[in-house]
Amino acid sequence: MTLRHMKIFVAVCEEKSITKAAEKLHIAQPAVSIAVKELEQYYGVKLFDRISKRLYLTDMGRNFLEYATHIVSLFDNMEDNIRQWERSGKLRVGASITVGTRLMPQYVSTFYKKHPQSSIEVFIGNSDLIEKKILQNELDFGMIEGTIHSDSILCEAYMKDKLVVICSPSYPLCKRETITIEQLLSQPLLLREKGSGTRELFDHVLASLEYTYVPSWESTSAEALINAVREGLGVSVLSHMLIQDELKKGTVVELQVEGLHLDREFRIIYHKNKLLTNLAKEFIEMCRTHK
Questions:
Q1: Domain 3-68 has CATH 3.40.50.300
Q2: 242 HSE (CA, 13 A, CB side)
Q3: Whose CB among 20, 88, 144, 266 lies 3.0–4.6 Å from 15's, allowing a Cys bridge?
Q4: Over the range 236-258, which residues count as b (16 or more CB within 10 Å of their CB) and which as e?
Q5: For residue 238, what pLDDT band results from cuts at 50, 70 and 90?
C-alpha cells in the first residue's frame, strides 16, 4: 500500500466526497474511487458505508484515518524540512590556491547575501588535493586551475587565466624587453609545488618544448614566492589573476619570454555520480556568471 492511497483516503475523509477529493488533488474521480477500493481490498475491511450516495466512515475507517493522517503529516513535514534544507543546507566547496585566494571570498560573500541561512565550508589546496577529496566524497564540488586525472570526475571550463613570469623591478633581466626560455631557466626559479595547477602547466609546456630545469624554491604559498621575488631572489611563474595587484603597484614586473605560452582556464569539477543539490547548482551557476 502506498502513500498515495493514504493521501487520497485522507482527502476523501476531509471533503466527505469522492468528487471534491478528486478536485482537491487534481486527479480524475475514478482514480479516487479505485484507490479507496484498493485500500479496502488490501486490508480486507470496509472503510466507508455508502448510504444514499453519501460516504460515512465505519469504526475501522475512523481508526485507519488516525494512522493515515499521522503518516501523511509526517511525510509532509519531511518534505518541508528537506526543501528548507535545500535552501539553507551545507555546501562543501574546494578551491585551488589561485581561485581560493582571488575568487572564493567574493563567491561566498555574494552567495550568503542571497542565502543567509546556508552554510559553506571551503577547503583551499592544490588541484591534485581537491581532486582527491572529490573522489573521496569529502567535497561536493571544486574550482581548480589544474587538469583532471580521473575519469570519474566531470569538468567544465568557466573562466580564462594565464601564467606570467615575474621578477623584481631591480632584477637584471627586468631591463630587457624579452628574454629567451634558456635565459629564464638559467635564473633561480621560485615555483609552486608539484600537484598545483600552476606547476603542472609550466612543467607540461616546458616538457613539450623539450626543456628541463631544477627549481630553487618550491612552495605551496604564492605569497611566499611573491615576497621572494620582491627581494630579488629569482623569478617566479604565477597566475596573472593572483599577482595583478602587485603588477599595478609595480612591486613586481612581468617578463616577456619568447615562445612561452601559458594560457589556461579555471574549471568547475565534481564527481560524475554526485547528486548536486539545487543549492550547489545555484552556487555553480553563480560562479559561471560572476564578474
A1: no
A2: 25
A3: 20
A4: bbbbbbbbeebeeeebbbebebe
A5: very high
Among all chains, which residue has been given the C-alpha cell 466512515? 57
Band (227; pLDDT cuts 50, 70, 90): very high
Paired with 201 in beta bridges are none
The strand ranges marked E within 30-152 are: 48-51, 54-57, 90-95, 119-124, 141-144
Count Cβ atoms within 10 A of the Cβ of residue 115 and give its class: 0-12 exposed, 13-18 middle, 19 or more buried: middle
AA identity, residue 180: T
Architecture of domain 160-263: 3-Layer(aba) Sandwich (3.40)
Judge whether residue 82 has pLDDT over 60.
Answer: yes
Q: Is the pLDDT of residue 291 over 60?
A: yes
Output the 3-class SS for 155-180: EEEEEEEEEEEEECCCCHHHHCCCEC
Closest CA to 209 of 136, 262, 158, 168: 262
- 189 has which bridge partners? 235
User: What span, in angstroms and rounded, lies between the C-alpha atoms of 271 and 135?
Assistant: 7
